[in-house]
Every structure is written in structure tokens, then in C-alpha cells.
Design brief:
- It contains nine helices and no strands.
- It is an all-alpha fold.
- The chain folds into two domains: about 80 residues, RNA polymerase sigma factor, region 2, helix turn helix motif (Rna Polymerase Sigma Factor, Chain: A, Orthogonal Bundle), CATH 1.10.1740.10; about 90 residues, Winged helix-like DNA-binding domain superfamily/Winged helix DNA-binding domain (Arc Repressor Mutant, subunit A, Orthogonal Bundle), CATH 1.10.10.
- The chain is globular.
- The termini are far apart.
Length: about 180
């Protein structure tokens, strides 16, 4: 079933929407959440919460890409659960990945307008990257994949992945500073 058809089911408040969403995107949701949490039990909880959040947010929202919309919901719920469970503990893999990325971003709290502008700048930056560099960056900081996983998936060396990530983070910092965002 196509995304727009599933979204229509949500709008019509048909419970079939959840079943179709599970059938089409359960593997995708599991991949995102598991890379953050590394616990099947926690992943299942997050995915179920994501389905409920999707049900509650469509309508009023009508996402063009259900995959992206659902992925963002699952990712945010998973990161929130990770932070809750690890509030007093030393950060593990996911904490280090998040810290790496936040080194490129402004440290101060920003208003919603500033957050939207920052999001647009980051999207523009990502669009300007070569495809392979963009894939490496997104797999690391969106899907929370390890350097080893990225290297294996793209059939390149781990050091190549590390160097690409370092250069891309540095380029992002420079790009944001050039656009008037102080880091």
C-alpha cells in the first residue's frame, strides 16, 4: 500500500492504518530504534509508542512521506528513552555519537524560529554533500550506526569513515558560522 493511502486511512480513523504501517515499516522502525537502544524490549515499546503518536498526530498532520514522519517519531522516542535510562550513567555508544554531532551546533538554547532556520541550514548543507559523504553522515547521526557498520555497508575502511565524518563535521561548523550561526 502506498504512503498516501495509509495516511488517508489515518485521516479516516481506520484502525487498518496501524496494521498497514506495521506491515510496511516495522523493520525500518526497528532498525532506527535498535541502533539507539540495543534492547529488543525497549525497541518494541518505542515502536508501539510511535504508532500511537502517529495515530494521534494524523490528523491534523498530513505527511508527504510517512516513512520519514514515522522514522522521526521513532527516533525521538528512542532517544528520549535512552536519555531517561542513562541519565545517571556514563554515556555509551549513542551518547558519544550525539555528542559528536552536537559539537557542530550552537550551544545556547534557541527559539523555535532559530531551530527551524538551523534545520533548514543543515538540510541545505546535507544537500550540498556528495552522495557517499551524505550517506555516511546520515547513517552515523540519524540512524546511529557504528563506524564499523557504515564501513561494512559501504565497503570502505573504518578510517575512511572516521576521516569523512571528521571533515564533514568541520565543514558543517564552517558552513553554519558562515551563515551567521555562532558555535
Amino acid at each position: 500500500m502506498e504512503d498516501h493511502e495509509i495516511v488517508d486511512l489515518f485521516w479516516n480513523r481506520s484502525e487498518t492504518a496501524i496494521l498497514e504501517t506495521k506491515e510496511k515499516y516495522s523493520g525500518y522502525c526497528h532498525y532506527i530504534s535498535y541502533n539507539i537502544l540495543r534492547s529488543d524490549e525497549d525497541v518494541e515499546e518505542c515502536i508501539n509508542d510511535a504508532y500511537l503518536n502517529t495515530w494521534n498526530s494524523i490528523p491534523p498532520n498530513r505527511p508527504e512521506s510517512l516513512r520519514t514522519y514515522l522514522g522521526k517519531i521513532v527516533r525521538n522516542i528512542s532517544i528520549n528513552l535512552y536519555n531517561k535510562k542513562n541519565a545517571q550513567k556514563r554515556p555509551k555508544k549513542t551518547g558519544r555519537i550525539i555528542d559528536e554531532f552536537y559539537e557542530c551546533l550552537p550551544a545556547n538554547e534557541t527559539a523555535l524560529d532559530d531551530e527551524l532556520a538551523l534545520k533548514e541550514l543543515i538540510n541545505n548543507f546535507l544537500a550540498s554533500l556528495k552522495q557517499n559523504t551524505r550517506i555516511i553522515f546520515i547513517h552515523r547521526y540519524w540512524y546511529m550506526c557504528s563506524v564499523r557498520e557504515i564501513a561494512s555497508r559501504l565497503n570502505i575502511s573504518e578510517s575512511n569513515v572516521k576521516i569523512t565524518l571528521l571533515r564533514t563535521r568541520n565543514s558543517l561548523k564552517k558552513y553554519l558560522e558562515k551563515e551567521g550561526i555562532s558555535i
